[in-house]
Amino acid sequence: MPDPRLESLRQAVPGLSLKTDPADLEHYGRDWTRRWTPAPLAIALPGTVAEVQQIVRWANAHRVGLVPSGGRTGLSGGAVAANGELVVSLDRMNKVLGFDAIDRTLTVQAGIALQTVQDAARAQGLQYPVDFASRGSCSIGGNIATNAGGIRVLRYGNTREWIAGLKLVTGHGDVLDLNRGLVKNSSGYDLRHLAIASEGTLGIVVEATLRLTDPAPPSNVMLLALPSFEALMQVFDAFRLRLQLQAFEFFTDRALGHVLAHGAQPPFAETHPFYVVTEFASGEAEEGEALAAFEQCMERGLVSDGVISQSGAQAAQLWRLREDITESLARYTPYKNDVSVRISAMPAFLAETQALLADEYPDFQVVWFGHIGDGNLHINVLKPEGLEQDEFVARCGRVTELLAACLQAHGGSISAEHGIGLVKKPYLSSTRSEAEIAAMRGIKSVLDPNGVMNPGKLFDP
Ligand code: MLT
Ligand code: ZN
């Protein structure tokens, strides 16, 4: 028997594209976490802002939860629909709406893929510099919902820095046209920034005006082999004193092992405990500085080997060693931590966390990597074969409580760039004070009074 609510939705939004096939419910009801069983009511695919508004108004009238949905490459369960929610997929709202050469902005619908944005910017002789491995599948709306970071934050910052304006359909169904591309706008609360990283809990981002910048200069990529964890931040210091770094990413031998098993070529004849991929502008002066930093690190015993890209193809190959980690681990459905501390707190935090996880996970494979130049660590824990998924998640959850306490002591965050979603919700208070969470709840109650927007994500009512 068809759900009568769907008939009323069809009446409220005439011509709305709706999917209800079990395969679609499964596909659109989950993200890359794969932890929850998808169970959405249906999938709505609006084609216009007006249709999104009508859907939101209908959801308020019928008290149906809405889950905004982009590429669903998220790693915190923010786009999961496991409780009869209506998924609002922005798949059909994926166009470039305009380019302004004077403002250097690109206005897009929120369902557009990051890579399509990057290509459109390039076609105008400019760049949209936010970048990460899921560029082909993730959407700008999802990037905004989590303030996504990625591999060039060190040089260009997070998604937030590049949003000149956005249109938000609030949980009321109103359209807020926020900041309208202005560079300067000192006229009260900047609601644009409230929408960024709100994980779909305040409304649905339907359009964004993105700031573009000059294309990046041709670059060199260097892969460094390190003997110890302690050396990491010292190598970072040595390189950044001499060069403007565009990226400084690290991974362990264990992470590399998974990427090699996935088809990549080993970079060195021998293995090393830690690796760093760094990128900087090419040029004689820069290469000289990089060599000097490298030699200095070798002399101090901080680095044991290194290779510098000689071509674009080799640079891409070196980047693959870092970028393919997530995909090479996907078959294990890892338990993911995505934590950050101030860069100055990183050495002490690293030492403490390393000891903590060695004690707490004696029998699990722990894979470390991440955006160390931003103070952001990814710690992926792999489930041993034979252990029940629920038991595995419960054990990892207990360790995350200890990790959260350690983060709190170092003034860090339980989510650097993946968002809180469902996965990190129990640990939000390690990063945000009670007063802050109360303020966030208050803001939600104004923009989404009936709690229809992405219910259960970020915090409970
Ligand atoms: C990455 O930087 O590759 C992802 O954000 C990390 C992850 O998959 O845990
Ligand atoms: Zn990352």
Percentage beta strand: 15-25%
CATH topology of the largest domain: Uridine Diphospho-n-acetylenolpyruvylglucosamine Reductase, domain 3
End-to-end distance? 32 Å
The strands making up the biggest β-sheet line up spatially as: 13-10-12-11-15-16-14
Helix percentage range: 25-40%
Oligomer: single chain
Q: Can you tell me the CATH architecture of the largest domain?
A: 2-Layer Sandwich
Q: Structural class given helices, strands, pairing? A: alpha+beta
- Give the averaged pLDDT, no decimals: 97
Number of helices: 15
Bound small-molecule species: D-malate, zinc ion
**What is the number of E strands?**
16
Q: Which residues sit in consecutive blocks of at least 5 with pLDDT less than 50?
A: none
What's the gyration radius in Å? 23 Å
Determine and state the CATH class of the largest domain.
Answer: Alpha Beta
User: What is the domain tally?
Assistant: 4
Q: Profile the largest sheet.
A: 7 strands, antiparallel
Describe the overall structure.
The protein has 461 residues and is an alpha+beta fold. It has four domains: 4-92, Uridine Diphospho-n-acetylenolpyruvylglucosamine Reductase, domain 2; 96-211, 2-Layer Sandwich (Uridine Diphospho-n-acetylenolpyruvylglucosamine Reductase, domain 3), CATH 3.30.465.10; 219-326, Alpha-Beta Plaits (2-Layer Sandwich), CATH 3.30.70; 333-440, Alpha-Beta Plaits. Helix content is 35%, strand content 20%. It contains 15 helices and 16 strands. The strands form three sheets. The chain has a seven-stranded antiparallel β-sheet with strand order 13-10-12-11-15-16-14, sandwiched between helices. It has a five-stranded antiparallel β-sheet with strand order 5-6-9-7-8. It has a four-stranded mixed β-sheet with strand order 1-2-4-3, with helices on both faces. Strand 15 and strand 16 form a beta hairpin. Helix 8 runs antiparallel to helix 10 and helix 13 (346-360) packs antiparallel against helix 14 (389-409). It is globular. The relative contact order is 0.12. The mean pLDDT is 97. Zinc ion is lined by residues 371, 378, 417. Residues 75, 133, 325-326, 336, 338, 378, 380 line the site of D-malate.
